[in-house]
Amino acid sequence: MTKRYAIIAACVAGLVASPLYANGTQDSPKADSSHQHMWVKLGLNQSQQDQMKQLRKDAGEKMKASFEASKALRQKMKDELLKPNPDPAALDGLADQLAQLHKQMIKDRIANLVKTKQILTQDQFKKFLDMQEKMMKRFRHGGNHGNWTPNDKE
């Protein structure tokens, strides 16, 4: 059961994480470099870049809190499963909490995409979604686990 939730969490993490987070923390030089490269490929002006940086920062903080909460719930599940007589009702309750958290993470992801669409032009947003789709294909198929790098070809 724990493995199942880990897989679900990984899938949700993939849905929640945008290419703007693909190279690690928002403070890492590698992440900043790849974001700059992505923004150049999208043709963002300085105002758009500033707005995207702020959006990335805000979403990153919310995402970090959600991942911590998810991690805590998975630990509670593990602790319950390790008891001599695990309580199925307690496990169901934890599963419901985790499902609600994942639901909220997906809603946050959609809200983030709507905000992104408001910042970008229609063409830029389409290209952004195409880049995101390619990154997710690599992630799902075990490529480079979703790490978008400036050397990636379109």
Low-confidence stretches: 11-31
**Biggest β-sheet description:** none
Radius of gyration: 18 Å
Strand elements, count: 0
Helical coverage, percent range: over 70%
Structural class: mainly alpha
Mean pLDDT: 78
Straight-line distance between termini: 38 Å
- Inertia-based shape: elongated
- Pattern of helices and strands: HHHHH
Number of helices: 5
Beta content comes to under 5%
Could you explain how this protein is built, in words?
By secondary structure, the chain is mainly alpha-helical. Helices cover 75% and strands 0% of the residues. It has 5 helices and no strands. The relative contact order is 0.16.
Could you give a short description of this structure?
This protein is mainly alpha-helical and 154 residues long. The chain has helices spanning 2-16, 29-42, 46-81, 88-119, 122-140.
SSE diagram, text form:
Elements: H1 2-16, H2 29-42, H3 46-81, H4 88-119, H5 122-140
Helix pairs in contact: 1-3, 1-4, 3-4
Question: What are the key terms here?
Answer:
154 residues, mainly alpha, 5 helices, 75% helix
